[in-house]
Write a structure and sequence with these properties.
By secondary structure, this protein is an alpha/beta fold. It is built from 18 helices and 15 strands. Strand 14, helix 12 and strand 15 form a beta-alpha-beta unit. Helix 3 runs antiparallel to helix 4 and helix 15 crosses helix 18.
């Protein structure tokens, strides 16, 4: 791990008399220490120890270099480089060993962070591994929902303040603690680089830095000044921790999103048909600033048969979430479930689908779409709508990318009605006779009847669609009515015939 003189100066306060920095704390380029040897080429990535026996009278001409002097150098030298002036009583060999141990100490920390990432450890593990580095409590918040992902501290070394969050077994902080932290004072502050926050802004002084992935604010690292005073060393090291967590999240998109795990649990219970109290639903939606009576629609999607990777679903979820407005998602079994808030987004369902179509097409993803609804408690029913639309649509129209429930509701209802019986068993007797008559005489009376009913018994429209003379049509209709043995004037009769004809043409 590369260091800088700000880190080294802070860790060597006991022997450091004076410091001078030309480069900022966010630049770390020192790879190892060694003794300075006059006449040798100098490397900006090496920290040079200049002993009392060596007399550097003029500044080096090779870029910005870093030195540790065991005696006061000329001002012209000191002002032209990054340097620390060390107490002259420190033996040079002892100083070199201490520096080597310091470099090894931070390298070990970075190796542990790498290992935690490779082992797919929890996010809190990154915080625990860093406690010895900062010697202060560390917290990580979901930027949008104020969900405390982790809060770790070494209570054996210092007393925790009353404002430090108590975290339950699921890693969540109570709303009281969140409010006590006064996070609303800094939520709108962008901290692309580490930012020191004074006591009058937060409950405690702290360093914070945002984690940003693909231009989205994912979370915020906060190191509280409880035990050890924070300085530029800590700001440089917060950058290291933040980057490791950012890389970890970049390769594990399941661990972040636009909503907290509290919302996930609530959605999962609703999707499974469990009874969820109104207060629980309201609390969950508050994280997204949604309300139960807003207008929503549900989308459910599945990957192609050859790809059931959960990671693929997570990556698609993040992609869809980033290009659409006002949504939250859940991975349930092997399906991706999205909820879109039409009220908050100000868009129609069709406008959302227009945005989604390229993503669905490019990823060979099929999706079922529910009708809009205004009662979040009914999510289960509209999730079922979307699932039915997907299942039925893939079978009926495999070339489509998404399927609206209203286009497949009749197919579904018909299939449910006749799922335990042969379709002809529930057909009116007259229709069965008409089918037999068609097979015997090849008169296509069933087709004529269906067209006539579809045209709302309009003779002119029916004749036009069948390319048939009006008088011929009237004659055939009279014959059809005779065979049916029923009058078509009753609405119930027409509905039963239409449903029966639909089932015969679209067997489940």
């Amino acid at each position: 791990m590369e260091l800088n003189l700000q880190i080294i100066a802070s860790d060597m306060k006991d022997i450091c008399l004076k410091s001078h920095f030309l480069t900022s704390y966010d630049i770390r380029n020192l790879r190892y220490p060694c003794f300075y040897q006059e006449g040798r080429p100098l490397d900006p990535t090496v920290l040079y120890l200049v002993t009392q026996k060596q007399n550097m009278k003029k500044p080096p001409e090779t870029g910005i270099l870093s030195f540790l002097f065991l005696q006061q150098p000329p001002d012209i030298v000191c002002s032209s480089c990054n340097c620390l002036i060390i107490h002259p009583n420190v033996p040079p060999e002892e100083l070199l060993v201490r520096l080597q141990e310091l470099f090894a100490y931070y390298q070990q920390w970075e190796n542990q962070l790498y290992l935690a990432s490779m082992k797919q450890c929890s996010l809190s593990e990154f915080g625990k591994l860093s406690l010895k580095i900062f010697d202060n409590p560390i917290q990580f918040y979901n930027q949008k929902t104020l969900n405390c992902v982790f809060a770790v501290a070494d209570s054996s070394r210092y007393n925790l303040p009353d404002s430090f969050p108590s975290v339950d077994e699921n890693g969540y902080m109570s709303m009281d603690h969140l409010l006590n932290l006064k996070l609303e004072n800094v939520l709108d502050t962008l901290a692309v680089r580490p930012m020191y926050i004074k006591r009058d802004t937060l409950t405690l002084p702290a360093i914070m830095q945002d984690i940003i992935i693909q231009h989205s604010h994912i979370g915020r690292i906060i190191v509280l000044e409880v035990h050890k005073p924070l300085d530029e060393r800590d700001m440089a090291l917060v950058m290291v921790l933040t980057e490791h967590i950012r890389q970890f999240l970049l390769h594990n998109p399941a661990l972040y999103g636009a909503h907290s795990r509290y919302i996930d649990r609530t959605l999962s219970r609703l999707i499974c048909g469990e009874h969820v109290k109104d207060a629980t639903i309201v609390s969950a939606l508050q994280f997204l600033e949604w309300e139960p009576q807003h207008e929503y629609f549900c989308l459910t999607a599945k990957l192609p048969e050859y790809d059931h990777s959960r990671n693929s679903l997570h990556m698609l979820a993040v992609t869809i979430s980033s290009i659409t407005k006002s949504n939250c998602f859940l991975i349930h079994e092997d399906s991706l479930i999205f909820l879109f808030n039409l009220t908050v987004s100000g868009l129609t369902r069709d406008e959302h689908l227009k945005t989604l179509l390229p993503v669905l097409r490019d990823n060979l993803l099929k999706a079922g779409i529910s009708t809009p609804f205004n009662d979040f408690k009914q999510l289960y029913n509209y999730y079922k709508q979307a699932s039915i639309a997907l299942q039925t649509g893939v079978q009926s129209d495999p070339s489509f990318w998404y399927f609206r429930f209203e286009n497949y509701a009749l197919k579904y209802m018909a299939a449910k009605i006749y799922q335990d019986m042969e379709p002809t068993v529930l057909c009116p007797e007259g229709l069965v006779q008409l089918i037999k008559y068609d097979r015997k005489k090849d008169n296509h009376y069933v087709h004529i009847l269906k067209t006539y009913l579809e045209c709302n018994m309009n003779i002119s429209e029916t004749a036009k669609r069948l390319y048939m003379h009006r008088n011929t049509l009237l004659y055939k209709l009279e014959r059809i009515k005779e065979i049916l043995g029923v009058t078509l004037e009753k609405h119930e009769t027409r509905l039963l015939l239409m449903l029966a004809l639909y089932i015969l043409e679209n067997p489940a």
